[in-house]
């Protein structure tokens, strides 16, 4: 970015304050010495433990998961306050080392209850199904502590959902209609959730402790060595000169940075502190600048190779290699950023906005020559992943490469003694911050284990699936009768049933995502919604991607569009207006899941893949996104008339349907607007040439 952009950018303290304001997962309370040092040491040890085990072997599953959970629960009660703003960290009899006695008790209880299952592991097989009273007591303690830890780190929504599922398991006999079940005693519930691998110590916690932690740490270290800044500068050099250049820089840099960070709000604050002031300076409205950054940043969670935590959850739940997940994510991720870019470009043309001048732009070769070393860890990470090694081994070598680059950078900048001290300090800081950022997602994954455990205990997932598909089938029959007056069939009853099921699933994903982080949302939805889509013949990979995409969409969907609100804070814009605009800019992410649900070939690696189906689906989706973008922007090559916007909007619906007849209908609808716009542009070009 230009020097002017850097001067207008937020300071590190301002960015931290803004991120804490909109992201409850990073609202860490201040601690006084010596507790701050003790907590930092525990966080550093946790990172060292995971770094070592990633390279030299993961311990037995229950031991590994229990160790990680024990560290997390102990640290959460020192890192997050129970209510409101953190008090001054002063030590008293009731607040030893500045932390209340209740927090000390909860931390200790969480550590003991989490380590109890690994401790009794040798006898576990004899206790499952017939728990001892001490087992029930310890399980109850862990459930209570986990509910409180997650509430502190993430707020009320997820604990409330977990409590509702627990109530459903216990009061099954009192449930209405199809939802009724024999019910379970508290002892049986605790047995299932605490002593088996179907609950708290299940796959979700396993993935967080085995894969996700390592990639969070990698993202923190990669950003600290300058890889994120390199992405921003390269995007400026490549895209800044085009119309509305800073907005295009925002889209491209957010895609690149998001590929290693996987956090919508962190990505928004990091890149937005530079790109949002630049967008405003060239003429974009404040709310639009905020929306561009928010919509772009939410794409980070769907962009390979990291994709937040969900890619690693998918490999466990689907039983496929990580390369399959990353390949499937390529085209849908491209469609999202394509949709944002098209709208940014049309808005720039409509407003007559300029790009950045040559003097304002960095030179791509100069930027890369100065920062090429920071790309080494990313290349190492991807190379090891593609070689077929385990993801945690890839993360080990990626983290090791980050540390190597850090040593080289410090040796270049300082003498040997100072370089060693700086390397130690920065490694300590990176390991501490990386572990800190993992606390909330670990608590969420463990608590979601309760939800998943209740689903497997009661079979409620299939009951909900039956209810939803029955309603969708009834709606499909009604709509099919209404459409029967047409001389051709628009959609079969089966496809209409699938469409209505997808719509209901999407709405639930977005609503849940308003208060629940993407990872937790995904885990709950695959337990509840995936069986629904499975009943209709949707492939598991497609079903998982569908609920994942709509879970991510919640970050830019009002009324709780946290990424958009964070961007609005940087832009000093109306937050709700920024959220509405961000949702409109991210409509590619909303349309594409329906495309690959009906045409799985868009994901490249699904059963029955054909290039014909792929190109029809991809081409139709791109045309549909372009048409809908023009309708929203009221601009194609010139201002659009009302009827042209309506035609383009209708055409978009037909174009994204992966069907040849629907595509032809869409092209026919586009034709009048396209022809008039082309003639209008030709006449204007002729007038300009005559004037010259």
Automatic annotation (TrEMBL):
Its main location: membrane. Pfam families: DctM. It comes from Aquibium oceanicum. Residues 142-606 form the TRAP C4-dicarboxylate transport system permease DctM subunit domain. It is a multi-pass membrane protein. Keywords: Cell inner membrane, Cell membrane, Membrane, Transmembrane, Transmembrane helix, Transport. GO terms for cellular component: plasma membrane. The chain crosses the membrane at residues 37-54, 66-84, 104-121, 128-147, 153-171, 200-221, 317-342, 363-386, 392-412, 446-473, 493-515, 522-542, 548-570, 582-602, 614-638, 650-675. GO terms for molecular function: transmembrane transporter activity. It comes from the Bacteria. The keyword Cell membrane applies. It is found in: Cell inner membrane. This is C4-dicarboxylate ABC transporter permease. Part of the tripartite ATP-independent periplasmic (TRAP) transport system.
